[in-house]
Amino acid sequence: MAILGNIIKGVIHAKDALTPEKNPVEEQKKVLEELLSKAKDTSFGKFYNFEEILNSDDIQKSFSASVPYFDYKRINKQWWKKIHQGQENITWPGNPDYFALSSGTTGKKSKKIPVTNDMIDAIKKAGVDQVFALSNFDLPADFFEKEIMMLGSSTDLVEKDDHLEGEISGISASNIPFWFRSYYKPGEEIAKIDDWDKRVEKIAEKAADWDIGALSGIPAWIELMLQKVISHHNLKNIHEIWPNLQVYTSGGVAFGPYEKSFNALMGKPVTVIDTYLASEGFLAFQTRPETSAMQLVTDNGIYFEFVPFQPEYIQEDGSIVENAPSVTLAEVKANQDYILIISTVSGAWRYLIGDTIEFTDVEKAEIKITGRTKFFLNKVGSQLSVNKLDDAVKNLEDKFKIKIPEYTISAKRYEDNEFYHTWYLGTESHVENEKLATELDEFLKNANKNYKVARSKALKGVKVNVIPLSVFYEWSDNNKKKGGQVKMERVMNDEKFANWEEFVSLNTK
């Protein structure tokens, strides 16, 4: 009998029963007031008159009217660079103990995003809240006695000046609560290995010693780790070595494109729970099994705003125009794409995180990630967001009974001076390129009226190139770094796509 598991499960259920109903709108008002109050004496707070905003009749409206939008480039140039020069109290009191390195999907050069102790505490609290949300899932008591494999970046953080640097997954894992360490795998020693391939090799060697009940990490890298364990031990599926694996906590990217390839590694179904942990904070997590949508963390150090995702508000580099209107949580509507804007306890203010989201349940503040502002394909008027591209790829998987975990696309001008949407699909399956191109084209014509109009005008057609899945992983390794928060570019600009096609040519001969 799982005595400890039953105790933990009982505590979780009791906590859930005693927790009052959430009011996300009111929570957000309180969070904004707390953020402004704590930062009012910083350089940023004085420059933008936080004291005056706090004394206004409508703090939310006054805040949005007084403070401009910032993307990383702008806030780093105007404010965060002062932190690197040793100045204190710039956008948040004191100086951050950590900087999260994030190249995201833009290239080798890392952004350095402040991570304060207040943010570390907020991430921990959100993690605990997520554990308590497991009371809504039908999990047996013995699940709560099993170990959890968290596959992120190295926890061997780099010391620089008066702070430590690393990816947010490594920073988070290096700050896990003491009571969680006995559950945490691969453990501190292996987690510090910087070389991702060597770390996964060690995981494969030790896999039989662990009783893993849950996995956590970005789908692409979790899959590669599982494949390595299966290959190392000559298994048919991962449940032959981890029979009690019941939960996978996904994050960072949409799970849909990976669903088929992930399930192919399983011996039985597992519960997939989505989370939204970015370099800027723990933004949302799935709280109930009836939906795959995630609930925004509205009471814990992050204030959210939302800009309607419309072409006239988006600049070519993915940033937004100054006069783009924002709305609060009280004003959003369901089934509409929004550009996500956040202000945080790490001193990010009206910050463009780069993601687009859609509300599936406004009252519960539940969302799904629909794409990236930089991954909005509109070069010839097709207005395709990543969720539309994901849907088109899923349709290919269903129609041709294949798995396509990775893809990328660009609107490319060919020698005939015509534009074609040029796709690269990562799959080990064999289907004629022409058949795939025709199906993609027809699906998107039926699913998106702007695409259909573009196909009758500037967009000449669709071209498809099927390549080995390994090429995508090697591209990530070559341009950034394997594992951690690294994500594949779904949409590329002309320059990046030219580099990509050269890389593919050299690696598929």
TrEMBL record:
What domain of life?
Bacteria
Matching InterPro entries:
GH3 (IPR004993), GH3_C (IPR055378), GH3_M (IPR055377)
**Record GO terms (molecular function):** acid-amino acid ligase activity
Ranges where the GH3 C-terminal domain occurs: 388-496
Quick one: a GO cellular component term? cytoplasm
Residues forming the GH3 middle domain are 297-363
Please identify the protein, giving its name as recorded: GH3 auxin-responsive promoter family protein
What's the source species for this entry? Answer: Abyssalbus ytuae
